[in-house]
Design a protein that fits this description.
By secondary structure, the protein is of the alpha+beta class. Strands 12, 13, 14, 15, 16 and 17 form a 6-stranded antiparallel sheet that branches. A hairpin with a 2-residue loop joins β4 and β5. The protein binds 2-(butylsulfanyl)adenosine. The site of 2-(butylsulfanyl)adenosine has 16 residues, from β3, β4, β8 and β11.
Length: 691
């Protein structure tokens, strides 16, 4: 794999972790550095730039658990500057298309870069009608019900401005609320959030708005999209927004020179720790809208704005202990437990140390004073010890040789691997717990009643040997755990409400679509991104179990690594036994049934679905196509027969048009399914791209 491909793959994965899973695994600064490397490669080799490159994309696309919505106007991202010199260089670049006098005269709106997530609010005649996350910039997720619970977002605007007003801003969680929320989660023995940004994103994307309502979310405007009012400046837009009752920042300043911009950045940096919420930099925007329009935008960011990112912050604290945790795949990870310390706005007391050789490389001893770095919104990192502070009482960390959870001897998976793993894959309680939590997660079978508490009780009580047994749980087995008991005076305990709910939800989960089961199986590299594509090609578990590595790697976006992971998963006896147990329990009932009776109206066609399709999620649309005999793929090529294009089809539509691929409007999708391609194609020359 070339470095370019490697960077594209890594950055795509990291973006997904950050935006969709709300669980980033790398510091932002590392992400930024990789992105810069990719940009440099593409600058030197423009032929490598494709619309799919992370340099060209705004976000990872919408999560299909929410209804996709197309924004009235595109939501762009921001280009970053990592030094004040780069901010000056930004202005310098603008001077090739506009004079310095005109630019300075227009002014620069300086703002905080709030660490939250962008949302788009659509008001019609002053009434909030829809709220969506940014998604890929064109299509976001409909989070209206959740946004309605945020008290700083008015349901009606003062003065009722007529027509559509599209308000952009940041939803975030103030620090005090974040600490309270995490404290409450600790009390409930639930997973805490790594930082306020994740907490805000996670809270906004909860399924139950009543829970979102309990989360301390706040909002500040940072822009305006479609609007019928006559607005010539961003500063004027903010005045209108404030007059309509929307929250605007009191920290924004309009200035007229780069020296003042620098002073703003300095001042904001100095006040950063006194703010009620986290910020990771400053944003500088050209104020006059006509100049903004003249400067335009690249595919992902406007030229008229730049985000200055604060440098990472370093503090020192005491390393109290190094402990180890066991993950879903058995990886044993040492982590630092530190004296709580405030860094870049939030309090940190734990940080991963990745593996034993990292601990050695960093040279840290238990009891050391250590340097801790946090780049604003990112995962904290222990950089190393302050050797001069040593007293002689420090201890060397010993990586355990036995699994702290099940006592198995730890081993690297392959010779030379730095990570140690617990080989007791099937029944190490830690691994089983993590797999069950994953199985029940929203991306998996979405079984709310199988949360951390329930999983802990089920594993500790020995109610299951592995996940193969989950559908065999009964009222009797659950009753052996106190968590699922309700005591009745003078009688034997009966099944508690949560126990009954869990059983009902397990029953309901049996008919979940096959791609959810694929995620639930914890096959390495098979997440919610590729699972629907795999399920579209192999709609039942038996089809999939028989597929060869070679056949699997033919599926779009399934490379050799994923194909290998699937085949090796099926090669393990107890994995196949899980499948058999699930089948025997009546689970996976929803998979692969539809294709049997449906007329094969699309036999032999290769179809790509892009953008929103009314009434269908992307998975459902792909499954519907496959159920009628077609192959569903994710990207347009010369082998594509049909592109079903909905709002937000974007670059795929452009590509299909340029390749002369038949394009079918998503409004005709149901007819396409029912009656086949001929029914929706008007004539031989219509709807085709250039010949
Ligand atoms: S303006 C076209 N202003 O930063 C302009 N964004 O890294 C797009 N953000 O998606 C956004 N504070 O979520 C803007 N004062 C601010 C901001 C801000 C935070 C976020 C926003 C955006 C991201 C880009």
């Amino acid at each position: 794999m070339s470095r370019h491909q490697q960077l594209c793959a890594l950055l795509t994965q990291y973006r997904w972790e950050y935006y969709v899973a709300d669980a980033p695994t790398v510091p932002d600064a590392d992400f930024d550095a990789l992105m810069r490397e990719l940009e440099a490669i593409e600058a030197a080799h423009p032929e490598l730039v494709t619309p799919e490159s992370p340099t060209q994309q705004i976000g990872p696309g919408a999560d299909l658990s929410f209804t996709p919505v197309t924004h009235p106007s595109q939501m762009l991202s921001l280009d970053n500057a990592f030094s004040t010199d780069e901010v000056r260089a930004w202005r310098q670049r603008l001077l090739t298309s506009i004079s310095a006098e005109v630019l300075d005269e227009s002014g620069y709106m300086c703002e905080m870069k709030i660490d939250g997530l962008a949302v788009d609010l659509v008001y019609v005649d002053g009434v909030l009608t829809r709220a969506a996350t940014r998604g890929d910039g064109r299509v976001g997720e409909d989070v209206t019900a959740n946004v309605r619970t945020i008290s700083s977002i008015p349901a009606r605007l003062t003065g009722r401005p007529t027509g559509t007003v599209e308000v952009r801003g940041e939803v975030f969680m103030p620090l005090a609320g974040f600490t309270d929320l995490n404290d409450a989660l600790i009390d409930e023995r639930k997973k805490t959030f790594a930082n306020p940004r994740n907490a805000a994103a996670g809270s906004l994307r909860l399924k139950d708005p009543r829970v979102t309502a309990t989360r301390p979310l706040s909002f500040l405007c940072h822009g305006i999209g479609v609007c019928e009012a006559d607005i010539d400046r961003l500063s004027t837009a903010y005045e209108h927004l404030a007059a309509w009752g929307l929250p605007t920042s009191s920290h924004a300043r309009l200035v007229h020179s780069m020296d003042e911009v620098m002073a703003y950045i300095d001042d904001l940096g100095a006040r950063r720790d006194t703010l009620a919420h986290e910020i990771d930099g400053a944003v500088v925007k050209v104020d006059e809208i006509s100049i903004q329009q003249g400067l335009g935008a690249t595919t992902r960011a406007p030229r008229w704005a730049i985000a200055y990112k604060f440098p990472p912050v370093e503090v020192t604290t005491k390393l109290l202990d190094i402990r180890v945790g066991v993950g879903r795949t058995g990886r044993v990870t040492p982590y630092a437990v530190m004296e709580p310390v405030k860094v870049a706005g939030s309090t940190v007391e734990m940080a991963t140390l990745h593996n034993a050789s990292e601990v050695q490389r960093k040279g840290v001893l238990i009891g050391d004073t250590v340097i801790l770095r946090k780049a604003g919104d990112v995962i904290p990192e222990v950089l190393g010890p302050v050797v001069s502070d040593r007293t002689g009482d420090e201890r060397v960390f010993q990586m355990p040789t036995l699994c702290p959870e099940c006592g198995s001897e730890l081993k690297p998976e392959k010779l030379g691997d730095v990570d140690l793993r617990c080989p007791n894959r099937r029944s190490c309680p830690a691994q089983l717990r993590e797999r069950l939590i994953h199985l029940a997660s929203r991306q998996g079978l979405d079984i709310e009643g199988l949360g951390e508490k329930a999983v802990d009780a089920i594993v500790a009580g020995g109610l299951v040997t592995d996940e193969g047994d989950v559908f065999d749980l009964t009222a009797d087995t659950l009753l052996t755990c106190s968590l699922f008991q309700k005591t009745v005076k003078g009688a034997d305990p009966v099944l508690s409400k949560i126990g009954a709910k869990l059983l009902a939800q397990l029953q309901e989960a049996k008919t979940k679509p096959f791609d959810r089961y694929l995620v639930a199986l914890s096959i390495r590299h098979v997440g919610k991104g590729v699972a629907p594509l795999i399920a579209a090609r192999y709609p039942t578990i038996d089809d999939l179990a028989q597929a060869s590595e070679e056949e699997l790697s033919q599926i779009d976006q399934v490379g050799p690594t994923v194909a290998e992971a699937i085949c090796s998963w099926f090669a393990v006896d107890w994995h196949r036994a899980i499948v058999e147990k699930w089948k025997a329990a009546g689970a996976m009932a929803g998979s692969g049934e539809a294709p049997l009776d449906l007329p094969q109206t699309l036999q032999g066609l290769t179809i790509v679905v892009s953008g929103s399709v009314p009434g269908f999620s992307r998975d459902e649309a792909n499954r519907a196509v496959v159920a009628r005999g077609a192959k569903a793929t994710g990207s347009v090529s010369k082998n594509t027969d049909v592109l079903v294009a909905g709002d937000g089809a974007g670059s795929k539509l452009d590509k299909a048009t340029s390749l002369g691929v038949q394009v079918v409007d998503s409004a005709l999708f149901s007819r396409l399914l029912e009656e086949g391609l001929d029914a929706v194609v008007s004539g031989p020359d219509e709807g085709r791209g250039p010949e």
